[in-house]
Protein 1
Amino acid sequence: MPWVADLHIHSHFSMATSKECNPKNLHRWAGLKGVSLVGSGDFTHPGWRAELRDNLVPAESGFYRLKDPGDPEISGGPEVRFVVSGELSTIYKKNGRVRKVHHLIVLPSLEAADRISSKLEELGMNIRSDGRPILGLDSHHLLELVLEACPELIFIPAHIWTPHFSVFGSNSGFDDILECYEDLTQYIFALETGLSSDPAMNWRWSALDRFTLVSNSDAHNPTNLAREANLLNGEFSYQGLKNALQDKKSAGFAGTLEFFPEEGKYHYDGHRNCEVCLKPEETIVRAGVCPVCGRKVTVGVLHRVAELADRPEGYKPEGIFPYESLVPLREIIGSAINCGSTSQKVERLYFDLLRNCGPELTILREIPLSRIAKIGGVLVAEGIRRLRVGEVSVQPGYDGAYGIISVLREDDRKALMGQAALFEPDTVVEVKQGPLLGSIMQEIATQLGALSIEPKSAPRGQRSQLSPEQLEIIHTDQPIAVVIAGPGAGKTRTLVERIAYLIRELKVNPAEITGVTFTNKAAAELKQRLAALFNGDKRINRVNLGTFHSIAWRILHENPQGIPCKLLDEFEARELIEEVLRQNRIPMTAREAALIISLVKNKYLWEAELAIPSKVVDLYQAYQESLRLYQRLDFDDVLIKAVDLWEEGPDWLGPVRSKFNYLLVDEFQDINLVQYKLVKLWARKNQRLMVIGDPNQSIYGFRGASANFFSKLVDDQDYPKAVSFHLGQNYRSSSLLVNAANTLIPLLYRQNVSASDGKEPVILQLEAVDERIAARAVVDEIGDLVGGTSMLSAHGQGGRKRDHPVNHTESYSFSDIAILYRTGKQAVALEQALMIAGLPYRVVGPTGTLEAATVRDFLAFFRYLKSPQDLFLLRTNLRQPRWGLKNKEVIEAINLLKVSSTTVPNMQLLDHLLNINMGEETLNKLRQFYGVAQYYTAQMERNAAEIIDDWILRMDPIETDELEKLKKICENYRSFDELFQSLPLAAEADIFRKGSRTNGTETITLSTIHAAKGLEFPVVFITGVEEGLIPYGTEPDPDTVNEEQRLFYVAVTRAKRRLYLVNSQFRARFGEQT
């Protein structure tokens, strides 16, 4: 659900404001209204900043919360947050005219407010007499000043059409925003429409198209909060707010809640003192003169908009956001019961509705009318119905006098009252009324389902759109279920609904259910879907979800004796393998050796006949000895230890076994022999097992995985009652794409297609001379798909010839698009092209960054700082070339510490080591290392980005580009600790980073095909569709070719609407063009 933000308000330090405008009252009324984020207002006033500091504490990044909010006054309200904001008025002369322009400024912190306020005072500005100070500054100079003090600010021209005080105001504004802000206009990305205009009026002027149109209450009284407000979907933080306003193509901004513009004080033209209200055309006829006093009338917003507009009324440009026009609930109640909106009777009914139905905005927009009628009466419900469908009467405001919006007139009330004395709210649906009232109640019931009965054909919580095949699987009572589910067949949905069925209908304890996924991201998605299905019921947290490795690692940690070994991540393990290869003079790369060792652990050790070459045995044994020496486990050891533990069956394991009474395994086609053994061990006791996957998407044979475990499970003598099911309908992709993908797989598994949605699907080929030109072609195509990323491309004048059409009736956002490739190296050219074009993107599975020597050294150093007694980590760091230590010196230092430092805590190892009798040259090198270690130990409270920047500045590493990419990876973690804990158990798809200049949530996805499994996108580009990449290698064997074909099938079936096959005639490999 979108959250509501009201950014423009005032404190009691502003003139003509209520004394009630203090933090506690603003917090209270924000909650009553349903506002999640409220602007502080008046940030320049020192007294107000002090009051804010006394009452607020930091919350989400850039937001604040009330220190002691107390218990909520009503249920269903949001957790209210504050963001620092203020309105600044500028009065100055420019281009021969006096200008009076107001500006709304939103800041990330009170400290930023301090800096701006200090700068203004240094210039002699009076910021203490009024919360909304009047500054003798040019608007351009103000923007320049505040940008210098806080580049992260949000600068919004306020109520842009107000005649006397706005950038486009008829009396003192400009005809062009560039005239006002000049070269700094580029830093403005949002405009506040004000109470007297709505978005539709602003759509008439094309010059405003690039701006996000926001609306705020400009409240001078807490009760007026959210009379206009903004709806947002983005990240709930200051940066999320800024991204939502700055990037119109993101999904962050969701629209506005509006005053009826006619209710604004300056909608029509006129003279309030003379009680003359004129339409714009009447003003023109009268030459702008008041017919009563003969003086010039105040020209209103509608008139001014018409002057600057270059489009007709009703025009809707592309990329607009929706809006809703609302009337305050008190006014509707007053209109219904024929009382003033501030009367005690209205007040009592207002709070009755809030206590029973939730916040005001929820009542006005969402609560069923039947429920409102039960509390507030049928007339209030009818008033809200009329508001929702726009059946209101309007008397426009003019020259500072608010307009009047009426939802119920006197004759309406009389007609509706009829026999209202007989009406009882508790029996609203059953009471029979006269024809008019009866029709109203029927309208209410029909519109909002007040009389609908929940169907009983399906268990609670399951939606009717589940297919018969899905329902059969969900409800099966077969103890062993083997489910073949092709791409887009609703596999995840089926798993979620199966778990829900076990809990709700079979009353299974959630703690007895385990769901095994292929990635941690998939486990998080399952948990999120279950939470949504159970409306946040905390019982769902007891369901045991995770990958094989994460679940096994948690079990190992339940051992009362603890785990004596630490877990290596993939890159630490590879460093250890490099050491083994050097010591044993084995002619092999670390990558090749890692794959061989992994195959041994996951496959060969578990086969009946141990047929492993002696050289491989030597490598494996040497590596395992190193692991024992340094008290380490690698990724594959986790499952081996879990199998050993389950077979030994210690007493403490008893309670743990109950977690597997109901076992569900996803992506079963990609398990290996040790995982199959673990599945059998986990499921042995109660024989309740469901596995689901697609043999045609088995793509990890190089790790020992095989789709043959499907048939092995069905034929397994331990599971004689195994029953197979099939989900063969593809609900994701268009028929053209499904039929194309079907040609890649055996006839037995080919998918059915769902009914056409009428949109024409597309499969296209893009061919270029080389990979750089191919990357540019992909980026150009994306620009066309999103409607143009520059002025020229938006109008089809980008200069690129095309030989295929783009259907402009379909619109795509950046997040709808994925670029897939076979190997990580292919991403380099694609990233460069995207950066040059300024397009936002993210890279899934950026293992190349984590493999870079500079990044490995950096991470190893900070791992050591977290565990300074760990001699393995110390040895790894001392071997880094930057310290200049010879291998002999490192070994000597480590051996000395092994013998004599077991009781020395933490960084005191330094003193201990330096007191040992070693050569002075060696000691100087160690002093340098420990000096750097002590410095960064003191920096560990800083965020990762700051530490990395400091490291680049002080340590002058090579490959700084890779460290910059590491910063983007670290953005996904709260701390280095969380990163270090995640890496050892992370799958490729669990790690991602955004592009160097990408901050929003709307991003193009770059991914290897392996990491993209399980994802879907309306538009997919598969790059490198050429010999040597797909299939990969120069002379692949038949098994590899078959797996490569399945991998290509995975890539094709990620697409929903459009598929592009991209190839290069020439590609650089191993430094040569091929």
Protein 2
Amino acid sequence: MLGAGCARERSNPEQALPAKTEQARPIAQARPGVQANRISAGAWHSLLLGSDGTVWAWGDNTHGQLGSGTTLSRPIPVRVPGLSGVVAVAAGDHFSLALRSDGTVWAWGDNSAGQLGDNTTTDRSSPVQVPGLSDVTSLAAGDHFSLALRSDGTVWAWGDNGYGQLGDGSATSRPSPAPVPGLTEVVALAAGSFHAVAVRSDGMVWAWGDNSAGQLGDESVPFLASPGKVPSLSGVISVAAGDVHSLALGADGSVWAWGGNGDGQLGQSSTDAAFSPVKVPGLSNVTALTAGDVHSLALRSDGTVWAAGGNYSGQLGDGTTTRRLSFSPVSGLSGIVAVAAGRYHGLVLRSDGYLLSWGNDFQGQLGDGTAGAPSLSALQTFQPWIRGVLATGLYYSLALRSDGTVWAWGNNYYGQLGDGTTTQRVSPSQVPALSSVVALAAGSYHSLALRSDGTVWAWGNNYYYGQLGDGTTTPRLSPIQVPALTGVVAVAAGSTHSLALRSDGTVWAWGDNSSGQLGDGTTTHRPTPFQIPALTGVVALAAGGAHSLALRSDGTVWAWGHNAYGQLGDGTTTQHLTPSQVPALSGVMALAAGAYHSLVLRSDGTVWGWGYNAVGAVGDGTGTHRLAPVQVPALTGVVAVSAGGHHSMALRADGAVWAWGDNFYGQLGDGTTTRRLAPVQVPALTGVVALAAGAHHSMVLLSDGTLRAWGSNASGMLGRGHSDYESAPQLAVGLSQASSVSGGQGHSLALRSDGTVWAWGNNASGQLGDGTTTRRLAPVPVPGLTGVTALEAGAHHSLALRSDGSLWAWGDNQYGQFGDGTTTSSAVPVQVPTLAGVVTLAAGPYHTLALRSDGTVWAWGDNYYGQLGDGTTTSRRAPVQVSGLTGVVALAAARDHSLALLADGTVWAWGNGTQGQLGDGFYTYSRRTPLQVPGITGVVAIAAGQQHSLALRSNGTVWAWGNNFFGQIGDGTDTQRRTPVQVPGLSNVTALSAAALHSLALRSDGTLWAWGGNGSLNTPRLVLDGVTGMAATESHALAVGGPDGHVHAWGDNTHGQLGNLQAGYYPTPGEVLLP
């Protein structure tokens, strides 16, 4: 069991394996990066432990509690550098703790009371090891004190002791760990503001410290300087502690609470304090607890989160600021596996790796890229997709995904894409056999990857200089390990040289040394890594064309190598063969190096530059080379910088990007090719979380996990699937992972394998579900919709089925096709009420069908021709059961008629039959109840076009009936068919799809065949191979296939439904740029 909660998440040191947020309703934060694993919340900051052992932090950084080496606050998660192999984290008031797999403890942030345990009271902005402490298994952090549980069951404490919270019998603070006397066999800990709680192996609870509100479970004393047993409490497995209240979780899933209750945080339906433990009513099957200052969170076994107490910052996540005296569920949360409560905010971790947050966001502790107003509901903060790690080479690009895989595209002349070939790639392809990667770097034609085990891997060009570090000058088409190099925490790649930073703060270099860029005092090339002498305490690196930069822990910058344009910043143009300090520059927190210029980001959010400036790369408004650092004017609040060949980029805390310098290829993204001597904002680009500037192109990662790229595309390095230049940001191709597609009259939908829905095209009725009515020429995510298993698109509305059996709809609802009892359209998904247990669905243009797990069919929407099958022609705003139909396994819905496939292989039809589409041999105007289609059995799949129907039999043959004016029956004629006929020449079919005037069939060999309205084809023709799924719509078609789930589209693109930026008609399949 992991901790429990800690006020400021103190009660529950790391997440009470569910966590908390501070916004009155959970916000899912899309933070690219590693898979989230554990969480912890401090007073105004938050911590996340990645599955790869890295730590990420965001929020207030006044005391250095983010561990970034600075005191610059961050509203989005940033990695704590130099810290790996971590297995647990805990956030105190303004400090942080981390437990590594070797049992050592590391601390950083506020140290005014000695709570960092390093025997000083000096604040630390980078992690320092707590000396004399080993074999630790868990941690807890209070306001200004720390607790550690060792493997022998003893508890160690340090920091503030004004209330006896160190448990040593005194009120003397301690700047280094000391054991809590007389306390053994402890299995769980929690730390409140000024008190501590521990669980022993016998299930008994002990507490000490402040008792001003009865939080120790004993009203007889104001405080206890030594542990005292909490009476009347047994069978406990974990605890949590808030400001002045305590919580305990029983082995039976029950919750017990005691202490202060001024805001109802004990969940007792009152505000009366409890001086001994009382059982929380109505709360069972709880698996984890956590406590904020005046609120409490509980995680239940069903993945829901329940909250009680103060809510003035929305910390209960229920969409209000009303306090709750009893526990109630946090709205919109399911599948939660961990919780953490900060002072007034909450964090939760969902089973799909998403982190959600809510409540107070004054210091950006929710991690959504903003700071200020609280969020009353959950926000998504961290998305397990792309890590936020990008790298750009001379004519190629690299991206790191959250699963630790590397993707590459662009020029591959020297094998720098690492795919074993020298074939250029115009869309992302995975670098094979390379996993668990945490960082990337790209030189002119070589690539570096850092794995979580501290090893470095290299591939690409190696001629002459040995920049791959393997002791040879042989290029490598696939990654190879750089030998004898371990414990690495960062890498950098210059044009033809490489750098690595080890965890001990030393720097290692190899490759080209023509200008002294390896820093060894010579100009001798090195094909294997060696340590740069006299350079220690380094926390970050950057490599330019032929110069190198290092940032030391004291905030100073050191430079060496080529200096013809002053890029070393020492006021001269003399090259340096060994590192020398850049004078008059301090408080630096990040570095970037271009071909011949350098940039730094200072802790005050300002950017400084020097070196080559003929085209404005320094950004000071002149074209004059700068031999010493100058501030980039009018640019503040910056959180990241990147330097390209001769252009520069800066990311501000608000997610906006600014660029300056060379723009010959449109690499500034402002829609022009005009060079800029001072920063200009890249228009229409928000929510950016990471950036990378290449020699002639630029790339950014957005909070939704998508990539945008612009500039030179000569080798396809923008990942757009072509090689045309782009002077404004464009969505990169690939990394799509689509599993199914569907299309409406002018819009398209794609379901990704992670259960998210993406939409594009016409949006006049809100059918894209993104909260707007703005058409989208490229896919956008449907927000707040996860765990989706199936999609359907009507003419102007969309449907999604979630894994919990719930059905959601959005877009046009004029005929009641949502089934929500109204005819009110919606630009965001709304749940279809009173209909649960749905297993599949079908959407006609204006009506909807749903199959429930009991084999019954339900219908709603337009019913002019009886297509709802309820015996009437009355349109329905809510689901009604289709009469006399059971044992159904599949459905199909067309404009005015409906089909059902039964488990016995028979097909049933109802609705309009004026073109013979009901297959009963008649031209029936309106059939109001289902009728079996005669003469066809053994059917395994069905599809319905506007006025025709298709059936796939178990022998792989296709049968069709209805309107055939455009050849949509596929029998070689244009003769209408009132009963099923076989489509000749088509066998081994596995799936069907039908649209208004055309039909599609997918064969077992992955080939896709089409016939019908196309000008027209009355027999099947081959369209595409490698297909796994498809959808036919009124005027366009979609297909998904390949190992990466890429989507292809063709036909009408009037509304952008092909995901193509150019309107028109496309007679051949083109790839949809789905991120």
Protein 3
Amino acid sequence: MTLASLRAGQRLRGVLPGQPVTLVGVTTLDDALVEIFFRDDSGRTGERMITDADAGKLELVTELGNAPAFDGDPDEFRLAAEALRIKYAALYDPMAAVNSSDVDPLPHQIRAVYEELLPRIPLRFLLADDPGAGKTIMAGLYLKELVLRADCERALIVAPGGLVEQWREELSQKFDLSFEIFNRLMVDDAQGRNVFAEHPFLIARMDQLSRSDDLIEQLSDVTWDAVVVDEAHRMSAHYSSWAGQVDETKRFRLGRLLAETAHNFLLMTATPHAGKEEDFQLFMSLLDRDRFEGQFRAGVHRTDTRGLMRRMVKEDLLTFEGKPLFPERRAYTVEYDLSDPERELYELVTSYVRTEMGRAERLAQAGDKKRGNNVGFALTVLQRRLASSPEAILRSLERRQARLETRLREWQRATDAARYTSSMTATIDEWSTGRVALDFEDSTGSTPSFDPDLFDDLDEEVAEEERAQFEARVDEVVDLATAAASIGELRAEIAILEDLIRVARRVRILDDDKKWVQLRTILDEQLLVHDDSGEPRKIIIFTEHKDTLDYLRQKITTQLGRPESVITIHGGTRREDRKAAREKFTYDHTTVVLLATDAAGEGLNLQRAHLMVNYDLPWNPNRIEQRFGRIHRIGQREVCHLWNMVAKDTREGDVFTRLLSKIDQMSIAYNGNLFNVLGDADAFQEKSLRELLIEAIRYGDEPERKAELDRVIDASVSHGLDAMVAERALHPEMYSSLNLEEIRGRMEKARERRLQPGYIAAFFIPAFERLGGRIRRREKGRYEITRVPQRIIDTARRLNRWAPVSERYERVTFETAHVRPEHQTQAALLAPGHALLQAVIELTIEDLGPVLKRGTVFVDRREQQSDQTALLYAVEQRIQNATPDADTVSHHFDYPVLDTAGTVTLASAPPYLDYDAPQADEAAAIATVLADEWVKSDHERSIRAWAYRDGLAPRMDELGARIAVEVNRTRVQVKDRLLAEINHWDREHNRLEALERGGTIGRVRAETALQRSRQLDERLDRRLRALDESTQLVALPAVVRGSALVVPSQQLSSEGKDAAPHTFARETEMVERRAVEAALAAERALGRSPREMPRNNPGYDIQSFDPEGRIHYIEVKGRIAGSDTFTITTNEVTFAQTQGDRHRLALVRVSPEGAEHDTLRYVLDAFTHIEPSVTTRSYNEDWRDYWDRGDVPR
């Protein structure tokens, strides 16, 4: 080509590598230089300077105004068209992730992904559904959709250490998403390069990232298409002063960094609210700093999380049938009396704890807060071990005595060596404070400072990589921390411990453990009974202490008489052993008891059991709910039972008895319809449960204090429930309810455009064989691949080096039902997203893609064919917003058909699958059709105009209305919040300025307050401009990816050719009409509402709605009585297989005696024996065989 020949509308090769572009404009700068403006097939635009030499390298593909040549091979066209459709699966199939994953999502999960997450671009969202609601499934579906839509090439999942393996397994097994678990070896292998840039799909441990300055620095230099944070409530922060200073944890700083570097940012937690509104809003600022700027002030700020958060509670979760998703659950309080020796031990230890707590409090008041906190914590743990078991308290007392005696000897040696007495107290202080600490934030190896917030981890789930370390440090505190300030005090405390140990040993030897007696009774009553299926019942027992776990294992093993009956998981259990234990408990019928500590509870999903015992009650009420959630979750079909064990007439036992009794009363008042009576964090706002328990231990003997404790407990439970109910009423946007009809409608609408499994199989097998691959059928629905050509392997590596393709596959399948059949090898699921399928698709498009633009000729030989020539187009449509990132907010792929009258119809399934290639003796008639002026004209402009008018414009109106609602709400909230903060700092500036004029200088200067106000004003202006940009939508020009000429066979017969082979049926229009009327009448008689589809609708003839809103698809075949065969197209077969039990083949035997003598039968699963192929258009089937398989309509 030359510069002079370049003009707008041309399609050229050579401008961009590997793809043609369309010239939009040409500007001549001089005789030897022009500037061109172009658009590629994805809608992206660009510009280039072109010289004469450059022009000589360009190739003209088509000229605007020229119709396609329609000279491509029909089979190649069909194969390339299917490759394109499957590549852009998410543009055609509105729920492609659901249909290409090994999951069966529930209504609330469908709504979360397709109504809450995907429509928000870019995403900033908190998914806060109850424990057990399947949030991992929702995140997996979301990520799979982003990948299929080509919107995610880099993703990071951040989770507690104990969950990373579970995340990788679920994403791999259920969604075929290959993620790596981040480790230090990756950093070493990167050799100075950014490790996060090297690995596009990662799962990382939250604390591993947050505690490494080097990793944080590298994270700040990369961006992510999507970041998901599990257990996100750990990214907490607190306001530390009136001036709005924030005490940020390293986890919170990690969250803020990820929020800045992620295009889509999803937080997930079942406990988003920790009880303090200001801390909750600070947590929400990770999603939107402007909406939650500044410290919350009641009466000034408000809480509105609409558009940022969804919370669904278990009570509201339903199946598609409208039944409760979670079964009933029952909790029992098992009270027991201590034996006389146990009572003596309890009183002695409690007296010791109370005395030492008083001394610890005095230490703190005297200024040694760190040491006082250490001692208080140690005594608290001792008291909890006392309540746990005789074994736990005995071992703890023995370890504490031994460590204090060692300390005493070392201190005495130091004293003799130094020969001084003036600093004895300082030496003791050093021992009790300098060598004991629990600050996990410090990884330098130096003595860390004390962080009291970390004591909360005693009642929270601790990350797996920290469990053993955490428990060891707890033991160290318990063994070493002492309030003794002199050698005499230390000796006196050791003597007390010796007395306590003597009593504890006597209790242990007597073996009269009343708590164990109660547990033994529960085991006898429950484990001797089998389920209805004949399987033995299984039970989970939670304890807080490893010593108690070992003690119970010995006891229960002895009682059951089989060591294999009991399995344990605790903080020191290795990750692989945890997984093995879980598998054994789930699948081995001989293992009926799982003993676990709280440290091991994280990530355990144990629906196999429906019985649970809290042998030790946690001091955090939310942990009771979290424990119960291990068995009371999706997949549980049995009524769940929980036994809480409480010692009568003990200080902490009285608190728990009162609490559990009040919870039971509240549950009865709501007919058991509120599972989490305490709410998320609404209860115990006056005092925490831990504070109440400590107060009971110290002062529970005083009647006034006991009465006050009862009042606080009653008020706390009532407040938690009232606040939860009120919050649901006031904030329905947080506590969402399910509109089942709406979700069913969305699912039904999506069914028609499902791609798999039939369509995938029909494409893959011939496409794979064309590339030299070898595949053969094995068991039903399963295949063996014996050879994958090197070209496919290399292409897969080029597309994604992290998802390699194997040289052979023992088994593959296209249907999730055949992935893991019983007693057979697991098969790889070939669905959109799988590396092998993607490589075959890319090579097919690379080899055959030009055929789509050249076009081809198809012959429509269907029984219900159109009566005129038509043009079939594959059209891609895209809508973007006007933000700097130009986010795609809508992307669709459609198959419009244009007839000679100018009418455009939209096919629900690609009709080219039903069309034939012209036969050799039809060539002359085809040539006549191609010579027609209408066929020779370029209709692409008409199709693009249709795409805008009937596709893009209505979608823009719909999207614009939805986006406007979201943006307007956000705009109001941002303005309210930032203006309130601006006014606050303006007032502070005036106040501080007045003080400074009077000579008073505070911690915050007036100039600082003024600067804050100005910064916020600039932020407000920037945010409002950004919000305005997000409402501006732009429809990119529709891109025609291919076209074909479709000629009805009856038109060719008018040229003197026989219409069809003689074996085809002898239907007339009257026969077809009577058959459809018979099927419509049968559907009405069944109580359904049928709707007849257009005459040439591909796939089915009738769409029928049942009373529940489900759609049934009926393909009607009518034959005059005595006919031997009928014809079914590939598209009809594939569509039927895709719809499963929603599809019926209606066979109507049309009687010569009249319509009243016609007979009708329905055939279910009519075509499961047929393997569709993209190279086969139709099947000539035996009428009698299908008629014999049929039955009355149902």
